[in-house]
């Protein structure tokens, strides 16, 4: 089982590594669902912890449809993220009808050549998620899709996530389950869905609050629970 942890500061990445996380998703603006962090923060986090760091590339929180000006900024951010030494990017683009904006996505993927790519929870706003997953699986650069199966917390959509995970297995693309996961529900969620990658934000912080730092002990506890499932 792979554990991904959201970091919003360098100390979070250090704590995630100490707790046994496998990968960092680095973001700013967490109250807005995650925005592109500063390059200074990217550089600091890459140096702080010997974990893969995947960086959110999202210029604003108004929507997941992006103008030409937005895309120009995203392309520059991807180049800067690469130069800062990050392992990958986390990105999602929708068209005006709520489907995947394939033309925009392909431009971003071209700029991200050689980087690990996660398609983020913009996916959860798509009506036909199975068809969207098929489209994303056509791009070998996209390793995984982060999803809660919809707009509700992931445990409430476990059946849908299981369907997506099964479809993803057949298509060769990973489903990363996330949103609303913590130590008290992770074992049941993994049993129900069969996912092999899980994503934590508030669930690895005291009181589930992003005002608190990442707690290594909470990650260790989750790792122990997941290890028991594999015995």
TrEMBL record:
Gene Ontology terms, MF aspect: copper ion binding
Transmembrane segments: none
Keywords: Cytoplasm
InterPro entries: CutC-like (IPR005627), CutC-like_dom_sf (IPR036822)
GO cellular component, one term: cytoplasm
Gene3D superfamilies xrefs: Copper homeostasis (CutC) domain
A Pfam family hit: CutC
Subcellular location, record wording: Cytoplasm
Family: Belongs to the CutC family.
Name assigned to this protein: PF03932 family protein CutC
Organism per entry: Paenibacillus nanensis
Lineage per the UniProt record: Bacteria, Bacillati, Bacillota, Bacilli, Bacillales
The encoding gene: cutC
